[in-house]
Amino acid sequence: MEKLLLVEDDLTLVRMLRSFLEGEGFRTTTASGQTAAMEQMAAAQPDLALVDLSLAEGNGFAVCGEAKRLGIPVIFLTASGDEYSVVAGLDMGADDYIAKPFRPRELVSRIRSVLRRTGKGRRVVTLRDLTVDTEKGTVTKAGKEVFLSALEYRLLLVFLNSRGQILSRNRLLEEIWDSAGDFVSDNTLTVYIKRLRDKIETDPAQPSLIKTVRGLGYRLEG
User: pLDDT of 165-199, one tens digit each?
Assistant: First the structure.
């Protein structure tokens, strides 16, 4: 599963983009300024960095330069019509750019294109006998395709993006709501977790992948 670093100080945009990108199968971390971005690139080595060139702390050009030094592809985000930033970013070696405001699906298309071009893409995630192809949006178990609804698939991606972590019911509700744009109640979440277990667990009555952590939430075992 590809790791993205989103360097952006607009918290509303960060929340929207992170939820959308994780719903598309990307593991996404964020940084609001140059210092945090530099630290995360060195520690986590993301597969690609999305960098806003205008930051409240530091600037995106420095982040872009460090990313290229580390061999991390960069797509930079710039204000519409800012020709100077476009030229300067490309001259620094940025792999692509996209002007705000942009459509999220156009951004995903640009991300996948850069990942393919730079050989950074990792489309297939394997968990025991379960295989998820995040680019094709397919799931197979023991070699046989598993057909998931849109919400079941997004729920599975949320778990994959947070493998080994305990996810509270509130966190899951927020992720599904943002990704699907539908109202999901607490009772509905219970139904979808059961349906997902029925399809991906060898023994849904005693799940070994999506474990219930009593009083806290759920955890995907890996």
Answer: 898 998 888 777 644 455 567 788 899 999 999 99
Q: Which two tokens stand for residue 211?
A: 């474990």
Phi first, then psi, for residue 81 (nearest 5°) are 85, 0
DSSP state letters, 46-65: -SEEEEES--SSS-HHHHHH
- In Å, how far are 110, 133, 150, 186, 203 from 207, measured between CA atoms? 37, 22, 21, 20, 6
Domains of the chain: 3-118 (3.40.50.2300), 124-220 (1.10.10.10)
Residue 94 parent element (H or E)? none
Cβ atoms of residues 204 and 197 within 8 Å: yes
pLDDT digits (tens, 9 = 90+) for 59-101: 889 999 999 889 899 998 887 667 777 788 788 888 898 988 8
Q: Beta partners for 140?
A: 131, 145
- The answer to whether the CB of 34 falls within 8 A of the CB of 11 is no
Cα distance between residue 57 and residue 32, in whole Å? 8
Assess contact for 209 and 130: CB atoms under 8 A: yes
Longest dimension (CA), the chain: 60
The one-letter amino acid at 1: M
Contact at 8 Å (CB) between 53 and 89? yes
